[in-house]
Design goal:
By secondary structure, the chain is α/β, with parallel strands linked by helices. The chain contains 6 helices and 14 strands.
Length: 230
């Protein structure tokens, strides 16, 4: 029994040493979530190369997976990263990219992501999201984030809204696809009610073929839509 126990310990230690000494292969990179590649496989590989020579010809024992994950997460395009090594020595990196909701188009251009933070533009892919114009403070994106989230979640708004404008007093305006009028939201109080009023007005105007008769649609008043004719 003692001899058998010693043999098991020896084999386990031997297998463990061989496993730790195994060379890690080139990384297998997988993108999860949306398929829009704001960051490419090549960029991820370069991030790994800068830390561990691409993690190629490196033993499993010397590989710091936490450091690799931290390096990937530090990229402003990446929301989540998980790095692990399989038994056969394959290095895997699972990447979840950030999701842009709107694109700020002022003196400095950037996206606003689904966590309300700024996200740089990508040279690899351009997201089809509403533009944001006017007076926008990169450190105060709360209002823009809230209306951009509403637009993404609402099929009517997602189809029709092409621009969000914020003026000096943080009043919000919307520009709609194939419409001449400007939608004046004002503040974000009673937002759902305002959007429902806009939908009712839009459907009524479509039916009556009067959409092109207005230059402004004001939703700031309770239980009514105030329109300015051209």
């Amino acid at each position: 029994m003692i001899g058998l126990f010693g043999l098991v310990v020896f084999l386990f230690a031997f297998a463990s040493d061989r496993n730790n000494a195994r060379l890690v292969s080139s990384p297998a990179i997988t993108f999860v979530g949306e398929n829009n590649l704001f960051i490419t496989n090549e960029t991820v590989s370069k991030l790994l190369i800068q830390n561990y020579g691409g993690a190629k010809n490196v033993t499993k024992e010397t590989l710091d997976l936490n450091k690799l994950e931290h390096t990937l997460k530090s990229n402003p395009m990446i929301k989540r990263a998980e790095v692990y090594v399989t038994v056969n020595g394959t290095l895997n990196a699972e990447i979840e990219q950030k999701t842009p909701l709107a694109r700020v188009n002022t003196d400095v251009s950037y996206y606003i992501d689904d966590e309300g933070l700024s996200m740089p533009l990508s040279s690899n892919y351009s997201a089809r999201v509403p533009l944001v114009t006017g007076f926008v403070d990169k450190n105060d994106l709360k209002n823009i984030f809230k209306i951009a989230t509403k637009i993404k979640e609402d099929p009517f708004l997602k189809t029709n809204v092409i621009e969000i404008h914020q003026n000096e007093t943080k009043e919000l305006f919307l520009k709609m696809r194939q419409c001449k009028f400007l939608v004046q939201l004002g503040d974000l109080k009673l937002l759902n009610k305002k959007i429902n009023n806009l939908k009712a007005f839009y459907q009524k105007s479509i039916k009556e073929k009067t959409l092109d008769n207005y230059s402004k649609v004001n939703l700031q008043f309770d239980n009514q839509v105030v329109c300015t004719k051209i």
